[in-house]
Recover the amino acids of this structure.
């Protein structure tokens, strides 16, 4: 029965190729099915021959997927670059808010915390500086990229380079967040439970969410570049 | 022939009234006198790109056939962009016309 449904087969093939973005795939499928059935109707009705003629006029599914993928890939990569830069700013703000809160609450550091801070704070600081450098480089690199519709490997490598810079920034940010978590944990563990600890806990959670969001963005964009590589090889 | 001009052509096709993808391609074919006989699927990435750029907006409707249909409308920014394209294109036509006119004139002088 399947051989009598060329439009459904064509739309299905295209949807599978756009599997990296479910919303885009659904939208494109609905639009293209409407287009192809209308074209087939104009040829005299949705017979298999008319469906095949409509598909022939429509063009190659791989070619269409490549065009859609090129736009999507570049937009995703640039969004990751922006997200990475915003995460650095967000982390800085969260750290400053926490420190200001400690000052406002007049929370003193104990001897253990002071000894640990002497070692951990320089690591935190340098990790953060490294993250700023990588994030800025990644953001600038990705923001200036272009992606032609034929997905050339040179352009894909450039995107991967930008994503690698963002990944390095995430690594450095993660190091900073781990140090912050340990120091904050030690500080809060020594204190009696009160509502006042909500601010440092929330600021720390915000840092973790920001780093996780960038890491997730990088992972999904890498998946998209892999789909692009597979399509470009066809 | 269309390379680099597809976005402008799609905007121009939508200048008259909102339309779905199939109607856009029909309009391009009709207004170009059949000269722009591009693969019909080509316009969908262009429609998506123009929508992302804020030059088009779109919404789902239901066609008479009962199928879901996405209809595109030129936004205010889209109309401004089309006006810009049109002005640039007009200058280009005049410049090329001048070049050809000059060349024709020169050829006529040589023939004399």
């Amino acid at each position: 029965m399947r051989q009598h449904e060329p439009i459904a087969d064509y739309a299905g093939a295209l949807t599978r190729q756009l599997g990296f973005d479910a919303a885009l795939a659904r939208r494109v499928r609905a639009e293209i099915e409407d287009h192809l059935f209308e074209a087939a109707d104009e040829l005299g009705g949705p017979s298999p021959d008319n469906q095949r003629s409509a598909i022939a006029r429509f063009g190659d599914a791989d070619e269409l997927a490549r065009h859609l993928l090129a736009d999507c890939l570049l937009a995703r990569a640039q969004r990751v670059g922006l997200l990475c830069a915003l995460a650095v700013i967000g982390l800085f703000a969260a750290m400053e808010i926490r420190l200001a809160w400690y000052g406002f609450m007049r929370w003193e550091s104990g001897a253990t915390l002071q000894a640990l801070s002497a070692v951990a704070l320089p690591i935190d600081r340098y990790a953060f500086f490294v993250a700023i450098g990588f994030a800025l480089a990644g953001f600038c690199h990705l923001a200036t990229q272009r992606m032609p519709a034929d997905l050339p490997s040179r352009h894909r490598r450039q995107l991967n380079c930008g994503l690698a810079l963002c990944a390095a920034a995430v690594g450095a940010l993660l190091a900073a967040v781990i140090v912050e978590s340990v120091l904050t944990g030690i500080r809060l563990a020594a204190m009696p439970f009160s509502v006042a600890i909500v601010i440092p806990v929330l600021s720390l959670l915000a840092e973790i969410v920001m780093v996780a969001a960038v890491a997730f963005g990088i992972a999904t964009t890498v998946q998209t570049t892999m789909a692009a590589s597979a399509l470009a090889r066809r | 022939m269309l390379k680099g001009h597809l976005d402008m052509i799609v905007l121009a096709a939508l200048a008259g009234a909102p339309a779905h993808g199939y109607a856009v391609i029909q309009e391009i074919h009709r207004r170009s006198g059949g000269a722009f006989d591009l693969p019909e699927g080509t316009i969908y990435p262009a429609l998506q790109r123009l929508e992302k750029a804020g030059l088009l907006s779109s919404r789902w409707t239901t066609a008479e056939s009962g199928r879901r249909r996405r209809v595109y409308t030129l936004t205010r920014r889209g109309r401004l962009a089309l006006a810009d394209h049109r002005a640039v294109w007009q200058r280009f036509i005049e410049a090329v016309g001048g070049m050809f006119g000059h060349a024709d004139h020169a050829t006529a002088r040589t023939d004399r």
In short: DSSP finds four helices and three strands in chain B.
